[in-house]
Amino acid sequence: MSISKLLPTHAQYHNNPIEFKTKNFTFWYTICNKVVFPSISDLKYTRAPKSYAIPDNYSIITTWGKPANLCTIKGYIKYIDSNPVYHIYYGSDFRFEVTSNHSSSDAATKALKAINEQLKKSRMSGPFLFGLHLKQVQKNRPYCSKPYNSLSVSTKKARARIIAKKVRKNFNQVAKENLHSKDRVALTKLSYTVENTSFQIEFGHFTIVIYSGVEDYESLKNATQPLISELDELCKVGINTANSANFCPWCQCKKTDLGNLKNRSWKIEKDINLMASNYLAYPGHIRAPLFSMIPLSHWIPDELHILLRITDRLWSL
């Protein structure tokens, strides 16, 4: 139903308004002037996850509510000292005003309480009241990357993947230009920091995890939790280092047994289910395996550690 049919006294403020519906209310908007934004260096955004760009010298008339109880306000945003200040005018001929230099939602909540003093605990979405979510507003914003701290977690990870792909592509090109074609070269790891958040990206045939933080067991456990739920294909064990006395993921041999090819059968002796339920059952294990769904017969040591072990044996001859 159009606003003119609902309440003519509110329709006088609108001429072909923009209509937007939520679960609880319908909003009607009339943007009063051309939407402009400050320079990229001064541009501010609403809080994540939406992070709408905030225009400058921006005026809008908003009517919202249910058919029996509509309200109309005039919103105005002006940057002062590179920060947006929010004004809301309400009442007959918009004679009353509330302001906030904190956020659009703070101004909206103040206005809602002023309009109806009985609504002491009511809150209102500032972006909705000021129409900052409208595509008619956001389409004119400068095309630039949002500040890192205003991005959602999923967007931060997506940006990390993009950076990783571009770095890997550039690395391969530079390596091709500066190394012999028969040289075996590979980018194995990328580590960088954005706003005190550390990103560790492992390269291989497939990139399976991108996570922020230090490279330790607990960080990897948290980062791989979604992967643990979705994939039954990989494994990482909470075992001692490769040079410890009890080092082998498969059997219970000790470091002193290395090279003993006659007196041992060298078969898989450990049980992954037992390790998952009680990792202390086998010497050398300090934490439960993260991926306990893979049988030990499917674990494959990486090429680097195989070569290191062969080198150790050659040096000992």
Features:
6-stranded antiparallel sheet; 3 domains; elongated; 10 helices; 3-stranded antiparallel sheet; alpha+beta; 317 residues; Double Stranded RNA Binding Domain; 14825_t:CDS:1
Number of domain modules: 3
- Low-pLDDT stretches: 231-237
CATH topology of the largest domain: Double Stranded RNA Binding Domain
Biggest sheet: strands, sense, closure? 6 strands, antiparallel
Strand content: 15-25%
Which outline best applies?
Answer: elongated
| Rg, alpha carbons | 31 Å
What structural class results from the helix and strand content? alpha+beta
- Specify the CATH class of the largest domain: Alpha Beta
Task: Spell out the helices and strands N to C.
Answer: HHEEEEEEHHHHEEEHHHH
Quick check: average pLDDT?
78
Number of strands: 9
Percent helix range? 25-40%
The CATH level-2 architecture of the largest domain is identified as 2-Layer Sandwich
Number of helices: 10
The span between the termini is 89 Å
In the sheet with the most strands, the strands line up as 1-2-3-4-5-6
Give the arrangement of secondary structure elements.
Blueprint: H1 3-6, H2 8-11, E1 18-21, E2 26-31, E3 58-66, E4 69-80, E5 83-90, E6 96-100, H3 104-115, H4 126-130, H5 135-138, H6 153-178, E7 189-194, E8 197-202, E9 210-212, H7 217-223, H8 225-230, H9 272-277, H10 303-316
Antiparallel strand pairs: 1-2, 2-3, 3-4, 4-5, 5-6, 7-8, 8-9
Organism: Cetraspora pellucida
Protein name: 14825_t:CDS:1
